Amino acid sequence: MSNKQKHEYRKKLEMKPFRTRSFNLFSWIIKPFFLLFHHIPIIGFRHIQVFLLFIMIFTALGFNVTLSVTIVAMTDPKASSNSEISTYYLPNKGLILSAFFWGYVWPQVFAGYAATRFGAKWFLIAAMLIQSLLGIFMPLTVAYFGSLGMCISRAVQGFSQGFLFPSLSHLLGQWVPREERTRLGAFAFGAVPLGIVVAMLLSGMVSASSYGWPLAFYIYGVIGLSWCILFTLFGFNNPAEHPFVSEAERFFITRNLEQNYSIDAVPWLKIFKSGPVWALFITQSGYIYCTSTFFSQIPTYLDHVIKLNIRNNGLLSALPFFTLWILSFVFSYFSDCMINKRIVSVGTARKLFNTLGLVGSAISMVFLAHTENDHPTRALILLVCSTGALSSCMSGWSINHIDLSPKFAGTLMGLTNGFAHISAILSPIIVQILVPDLNNSQQWRSVFLMAAAIELVAAIYFILWGSGDIQPWNESIKKEEGDYFCF
């Protein structure tokens, strides 16, 4: 960064007196914590931002997944040790589980653009606040409004959560230098499997306890509200807005990210014509279809086919995603090593790890499809292998948005993530159609084979047309060019 650029950053900070003065109201509490890291280059403020984003995704996945386990307890009077816990007749479980994604897909593109244009901080706080309040009131919603109320509440939660991942990609693009992108990106996205693990474990144990399933919603509601307070105090849109980032760390981040560009327009037509973007979208769609099938249907599969009680159901439902979380760090380490030592290019690394994940998962799914219900141990091992293999994708498509366009990473994530989650809407509905008898392992076979086929198609498409290079349309081009649309 030149002296002129450093001067512009200092000037930018001086032009925001209201933000600085309002922040100083809390600085006597906050500043001592920041100064602990002020002179330590290995642990910087970028890591604090990524950790806050990790907690956000961890909590959000709790809101998403808790219902997959608690819906079993909601409809089973014997699930809790307390006979006074309310249970309900919910015939349309597939619709209830898919309702979250009715709202989730729509705000994605706007969320990415809004994060790029206005900053992501307050969008994230509002989104988490809405999810938290709806989660706390979920037991009352089902009691007074039944299935319809649950569907509406879940759709609104989904709409709110639609702002999270586009904003996450945008903030990673603002805070994480290229040398640390795979590791810190895998850490942030690793909150997805860990959030699923903890939500399934917690929901299973709480549902079986004397407190019953409502407590699971209260716990995540309180965690979400607490995160809103933390991010209000500690979260920032970029290093230029952070009052305590040292010049050394700011330089380390911005020398790679080139944050001095201005965002005037999004090259929509060039994005829609981009082969690597389509490869990313198709791969992401296949991945999301399979993972959403796993986390929404594994509890039901274990309950009806493997015949597990609610406590063990939550434990074993979480095991595949715990494996996914652990292995994601292993794969991200090897990916970064291969890229930084120039053993392979970024694009080759993304294709390699993406293929390992999707093909490995598909092979396990094929074996699972041909496993009878009198071999529960084998079925569980294959579930763990199939889900665990997908951890390799954390070093594949998951961070490819930033590879293709650091400038429009949030918009790109919003675009692909929104449309890709249409597959998550279809997943529980397809299972409901293919498996009318939940106790029939033969009917579950078609679910697993379909998921395996989708994974193979996604892997092949990414090999052929995926890329790890920054795309030409990432560079600033004047608005007058016809391929640019402005909001």
* C-alpha termini separation: 31 Å
Specify the number of helices: 21
How can the largest sheet be summarized? Answer: none
Helicity range: over 70%
The CATH topology is given as Growth Hormone, Chain: A
Compressed to H and E, one letter per element, the order equals HHHHHHHHHHHHHHHHHHHHH
**Domains counted in the coordinates: how many?**
1
State the name of the first-level CATH class.
Answer: Mainly Alpha
Going by CATH, the architecture would be Up-down Bundle
How much strand? under 5%
Mean pLDDT equals: 80
Provide the low-confidence segments as ranges.
9-40, 478-487
C-alpha-based Rg, rounded:
23 Å
Strand tally is: 0
Shape verdict: globular
Family: Belongs to the major facilitator superfamily. Sodium/anion cotransporter family.
Membrane topology: Multi-pass membrane protein
Main location: membrane
Keywords: Ion transport, Membrane, Sodium, Sodium transport, Symport, Transmembrane, Transmembrane helix, Transport
Give a verbal description of the structure.
The protein is mainly alpha-helical. It has one domain: MFS general substrate transporter like domains (Growth Hormone, Chain: A, Up-down Bundle), CATH 1.20.1250.20. The chain is 73% helix and 0% strand. The chain contains 21 helices and no strands. The protein has helices spanning 3-14, 17-35, 45-74, 93-104, 108-118, 121-136, 138-161, 164-175, 181-189, 191-208, 214-234, 247-257, 268-272, 275-304, 310-340, 346-369, 376-389, 400-404, 409-420, 422-434, 441-465. α3 packs parallel to α10 (191-208), α5 packs parallel to α8 (164-175) and α15 runs antiparallel to α16. The longest helix is centred in the C-terminal third of the chain and has 31 residues, at 310-340. It is globular and about 60 Å long. The relative contact order is 0.14. Mean pLDDT is 80; it is low at 9-40 and 478-487.
